Every structure is written in C-alpha cells, then in structure tokens.
Predict the 3D structure of the following.
Amino acid sequence: MEKRIKYGILLTAIFTLLLFLWWMFHDPTNKFAESIPGEDKKGTDSLKVGPPVNIGENFQVFNTETSGLKGTWTRFRGADFDNIVKNSVPLKNSWSGNEPEIKWSVDLGEGHAGPAIYEGKVYVMDYDEATRSDALRCFSLEGGKELWRRSYKVSLKRNHGMSRTVPAVNAEYVLTMGPRCHVMCVRRETGDLVWGLDLVQKYKTEVPLWFTGQCPMIDGNKAILAPGGSSVMIAVELSTGKVLWETPNPGGIKMSHSSIMPWTLNGKKMYVYSAVGAVLGISAEGADEGKILWKSTAWNHAVVAPAPVCFPDGKIFLTAGYGAGSMVIKISPSGVEYKVEVLKQYLPKDGMACEQQTPVIFDGMMFAIEPKDAGPLRNQLICVNPDDVNKVVWTSGKESRFGLGPYLIADKKMFLLNDEGTLTMIKPDGKKYIQLAQKKLFDGQDAWAPMAIADGRLLLRDSKKMYCVNIKQ
Amino acid sequence: MSDKNEPKSMERRRFIRTGMQSVLAVSLGGIAGVSLLKSTSKKLVWQLDPFKCVQCGRCATECVMTPSAVKCVHSFNLCGYCDLCGGYLKPDANARSTAAENQLCPTAAIKRQYIEDPYFEYVIDEKLCIGCAKCVAGCTSFGNGSLHLQVRHDRCENCNECAIARVCPSEAFLRVPVDTPYMIKGGFTKGGTSKDQLKKG
C-alpha cells in the first residue's frame, strides 16, 4: 500500500515537473508574425518631383458674352470667409412643382472643386482627363456657356477626384491652385496669364493625400499661400508674381486641405492656418508681416480639411475628420507675444465636429453637419452655442442626414446639399430645426464641393457635373 | 307542424355535415400544398445585409463557431485604394505604415500592399479574421464602405436559429436562397439591398 502511494506521488511529481517544463519552455506566440513597417513595400515614386510644368501654357476662347449681373462670390466661403451672403436678393421661401429650376449644367472632370463668381462670370478649377491638364474654366453665369479656358499639362491619377480647390477672384485677377500645388494667376476678364508658381518645385511642398484642398487667398494686392515644405506661408504680389515674404518652416509643418483664414485679434491682423502638424497665426501687417505670432502643435492630425473658425474673443474652433474630433483654443496677447491655451478637445461623438466642411456662425449660433463617426448624430445638421460646443441645442434628426455635403446662408435661409444631390432649405434658427423645402435636384454622387451663390443663382456640383439653380424670388 | 319542421331539420344537418367536410378537405389540401411547397422550395441559408450592418461587433462574439463564421470581405471595385485607409489604420495613427501599432485590425488580418503611387491594395486574410467589424466601421466612416461582413458558408453551420441573428441590433441577418448565398456590395448603391446585389457564391 505504501509502495503504491510512493509510486503515485512519484508519478504525480514527474508529471508535474514535465508540465512545468513544458509551460516554461513552450512559446505560445511562436506562430505569431511580426507586423513591422515596410511590409507594404511602399515605393518612393510619390516623393519624386515630376517634370517642370509650364503653368498656363494653353488658352482657348469659346464664346464672348457681356453680362449685366453684378453679384459676386469671390472665394472659398465668400467675400467675408463666413459662407454667408450679406446683401442677397430676395430668395424663394418655399419650392413647389419644378422649383427650384436647374437653369443649366455642365460636365466637369471628376472632382470637388467649387466655383467662384464675379459679375456674371463663373470660374472653376477643373481637371481635363482627356488632355491631362489642369484647366481654369470661365463660364457665363446666365447661360452656362464656356467663355474661355486657361490650362496646362500635368499628370494626375484619379484619387477620390482630382480638382478640389475654389479659385479666388477680384476685379482684376483670378488665382488658382491645382491638384499638384501649381498656382496660377490670370487676368479675370481676358484669361491672360500673369504668372505661375510651382510650390512643389520651389518650396518642396508635399502634395496632400487626395491632392490639394487649400483654396488660395487674395488679400489686397497679394496672393497668400501656405506651401508647407521650406516655407509655411508666403505672400506673392498679384500683378508681378514677385514673392513678397516667406515664413520659414523649422517645425516641418505640412500643407493640409484647410484654407487660410484672416483674423483680427485686439487690432492685430493675422492669417490663421490649420496645417498638418500645427495650427498657427502669422502676422498679416506691419513690420512683422509674415512672422509667426503664435503656434500650437497640440492640434496635429494627418488630414485636416475644415478651416479654423475664429471668434473676436480670442477663441478658435478647430475640427477635422478621420477620428480627429475638435479642439477649442484661446489665443491671448501676452506682452509682445501670444499665449495659446487649449480649452477643449473631444471626439466627434461628444460635440460639434466636421470632416470636410467648415461650420457657419449665424445669429450667434454655430451650425455644422456631423461626420460619420459621430455616433447617433452622424451626418445630421446640428446647432450649438459657440460658448459650449459640446452641448447640442438641436439636431436635424435621424430622418434628415446630409452626408458630407456643403452648406451656406443667404437671405436668412440655409441651403444644404447632400451627397446625392438633394437640396434642402432650412431656417437657421437657434432653437429648433425648421425645414422650409427640399428637392432632389439630380441623381449625383459625392456632391461635396463648396457651393457659390450670386444674383439668386446657386451653383452646386457633384463629382462630375456643375449645376446652376435659380432660387430667386 | 311537425311535417313542416322535419325537412328543415334535415337541411340543417346536411348543411353542417357538408360544411365540416369542406373545411376538412380545404385544411388537408392546404397542409398538403404547404408540405409540397416546402419540399420543393430552395434551401435557405443565413446571410447579413451589409447595408443594415451597424458594426456592433457581436458577429465576433455570438457565433457558435470559434472563430466566427462571419468574416470581412472586400469589394475591390468599391475601394479607393487609399494610402490613408480608414479600415486599415487606426484613427490618427502615428504613420501610414504596416507597423502593428498603426493597424486597426486586432489580428492583423488585413494585408496592405503598395501598387503604384498613390494606390494601395488591402486584402483580407480570412484565416486571421474574427469578424469583429472594426475595419468595417473604419471603412464605412472614412471610406467608400468597400470592407463589409459576410457569413462564410464554408464555415457556417447554418443553425436553425442563428445565434448572431438573435442578438443583431439592426436585424441585418436574413435567410437567402442557397444558390445566391452572398450579399456582396457592388456599385455605389446605398440605402438598401436589391435583388441584383445577391451574388452567387
């Protein structure tokens, strides 16, 4: 009996020992494969600088036309950079039957570039796949006829569309930026080339994912551009193409899809740019023009499309898609310098956020369409008080979602276009969602381009076609 | 009095008898018809409608199979082939690379391959996929929605009561004919599934 017990104990001990040894020496992860950088065998051809591009080399005239129209939509987000028309002609309060009427439409290359309007003429930066050319196309606002086209050869591959920038226009010039960061300035009336600038060649700009989204800015007689690369921002004289100042870029800030916004804080005019790597303010006047006044790397996301929304009290609302969410910072003058304070940072589901478009401020309230990763609020229009961007005052509801489409305000009405071409008119009310009218205008796809409006004509587009819609009373 | 009532009573009895016989005949005929229909109808299998799927993650945890019979599939004709892929990379990843810390998939089941500037291809390794739908959520939120879940019928036990269908919050699970067992996304249609989206496996 004792022997049996001894053998039993011995066998148990041996078994336990073997088990222990197996446990010690067995590697349960021996079949795991490491995931290390470079497994995708990413090429370096994206870093190559292509052959020199002869910016503005080609010009075609198709029609001539004079117009009595005087309305303008001079750039991305309009004259005051706020997406609001201040002195609009009266617009219809509701639509019935075939209203609003599509006056004309034109085919465009695949893209999301919005138009600018100046006294009866429409300017669109397009890409012509047939001739492989960037093309600034001028149309008649009244009839949609193409008047002239200034183009240059540049090789692109479709990447969620090609062109995606809005030209800037004043009485004399039109300023454009192409998908591969080619800047062109032409005479507004005649289309005559004034100058061209290749930001990749000159400033080693890294072309953003899905091509350039930064809309160029005209400020007085200057073109204001944010190349990233060797200069974070530059000013170019419109009439000559002479570079007036360059802001060094020691932090390696990269060009984003966002556009430069002007801002005046405590009497100091500056340019605010939400870049990839940082948000920064650059002096726009005086002896320090072109110098960085403040910068914050707390705002640093791979893809930034919406423009910064700046408030008179020093607050700036920053937002971006692809999971980034939003941030509120406060800029305070501190002696000769500026202090940057992060007040809020949150994910899209926790408050106002945008992926592509920029919020609109109207009657003290802020309106925007939430991105797809905003949980139950996804793609809904929401309204918040800018003082508390986390508290949603109202939403358009789960039955009224708008995708990534654009929106603007004119004649105290807000117009929203969804991805597929349905135009909705609402009253931008601070207390509740009030829908005035809705119409499926066309069976579209990815209608994300910023809209433009002048003389009661609303210009909108999907990825391949631009439409002019009459919304005048 | 009795002469007048007798024929009436007979008619009522005959009427009830005939009625009962008719009801019985119809019932038996119906049962036979339904049985015949069932015996000749096509076999049905479980599938999930990718347009209804809300990427809740239950497909990975509720299936009786381990790992789940639900896997991610990729509609290459919908994919944008982006460098920054919302289905492959974590939001705000440190870099657009294949490093483990940047990948959204918990099992590294998506293989990223450079094609040519600016395109990348993403291929699912089904042996590693657990059907968690993290990539589907990323692709749906930030991309074209080309990554989506499907019940793979080489693994599915086709339970009478699907354990996932029972808890699916969006009621995306449905029975489809065995000869068209997959609902692969195609084209750019949104908001519903039409018959032509039922693809043969």
The helical segments of chain B are 2-40, 58-62, 134-142, 163-167. Chain B has two domains: 1-41, 44-199. Chain B has a mean pLDDT of 85.
